[in-house]
Amino acid sequence: QVQLVESGGGLVQAGDSLRLSCAASGDIAPLYVMGWFRQAPEKEREFVAAMRWIGDSILYADSVKGRFTISRDNARNTLYLQMNNLLPEDTAVYYCAQRRNLLLPTSPGGYPYWGQGTQVSVSS
């Protein structure tokens, strides 16, 4: 079983930046695909970005394209989400997720492993 631990959330103002991290441990070989989702109060969990652990396949939600960048450090088994020009509507709990398949699903149901989440709050 893989364990995922997110960090890096916080309270920022609109226009600021944050970088989230997700450290993977446990039975992590191979990681295949990792992604970020977010869930705002009283809303469903939504896809943010995902990438394959090997290669260059990356997928972004339209709402974050051009502002967020997903990346990885293979040696540290860590996934990152660089978030620039944050908006109040980006306020949510951000979750890291992982699957052992090369497909890049955007539905939360496509990912069996989840972290505990980290809160991102953006004030206007």
Can you describe what's shown?
With 124 residues, this protein is mainly beta. Helix content is 0%, strand content 52%. It has strands spanning 2-7, 10-13, 18-26, 33-39, 46-52, 58-60, 68-73, 78-83, 92-99, 113-114, 118-123. Strands 2, 4, 5, 6, 9, 10 and 11 form a 7-stranded mixed beta sheet that branches. A hairpin with a 6-residue loop joins β4 and β5 (46-52). The model has no long low-confidence stretch (mean pLDDT 95).
What structural category do the secondary elements indicate?
A: mainly beta
Query: What is the total tally of β strands?
Result: 11
Q: Tally the helices.
A: 0
Low-confidence stretches: none
Q: Tell me roughly what share of residues is in helical segments.
A: under 10%
Strand count, sense and barrel status of the largest sheet are: 7 strands, mixed
Shape: globular
- N- and C-termini, Cα separation: 40 Å
What is the H-and-E element order? EEEEEEEEEEE
Please state roughly what percent of the residues sit in beta strands, choosing from under 5%, 5-15%, 15-25%, 25-35%, 35-45% or over 45%. Answer: over 45%
User: Over all CA atoms, what is the radius of gyration?
Assistant: 13 Å
Averaging pLDDT over every residue, what do you get? 95
